[in-house]
From TrEMBL:
This is Aminotransferase class-V family protein. Residues 2-57 form the Aminotransferase class V domain. InterPro entries: Aminotrans_V_dom, PyrdxlP-dep_Trfase, PyrdxlP-dep_Trfase_major. SUPFAM superfamilies: PLP-dependent transferases (SSF53383). The keyword Transferase applies. Keywords: Aminotransferase, Transferase. GO terms for molecular function: transaminase activity. It holds the Pfam family Aminotran_5. It comes from Mycobacterium xenopi 4042.
Length: 75
C-alpha cells in the first residue's frame, strides 16, 4: 500500500496518478490518494486514475474545523 497526495498544497506539484497506480498495481499493491488540497480545483476521475481509495478533508479548503472526511473506495 502506498499513500500519496494528488497535489501538494504547499509546493503546487501534481502527482501523475495513472503512472503511479500502474506501477503499484503491477506488484499487487493498493493506492490511497489524499485529494484534499486539489479537490476545489481539480476533478479526480477515480476510474481513469485507477486509484483504490480517495480521501478528502474539507478543512483543507475552508470547510468546518471538525475535520470531516469523505471516502471513495473501489472494490
Amino acid at each position: 500500500m502506498i499513500a500519496v497526495t494528488s497535489a501538494s498544497g504547499t509546493l503546487g506539484t501534481v502527482t501523475e496518478l495513472r503512472t503511479l497506480t500502474k506501477l503499484i498495481h503491477d506488484v499487487g499493491g493498493l493506492v490511497v490518494v489524499d485529494h484534499s488540497a486539489a479537490a476545489p480545483y481539480r476533478l479526480l476521475d477515480i476510474e481513469e486514475a485507477d486509484v483504490d481509495v480517495v480521501a478528502v478533508n474539507a478543512v483543507a479548503w475552508g470547510g468546518p474545523p471538525i475535520g470531516p472526511w469523505c471516502f471513495a473506495i473501489r472494490r
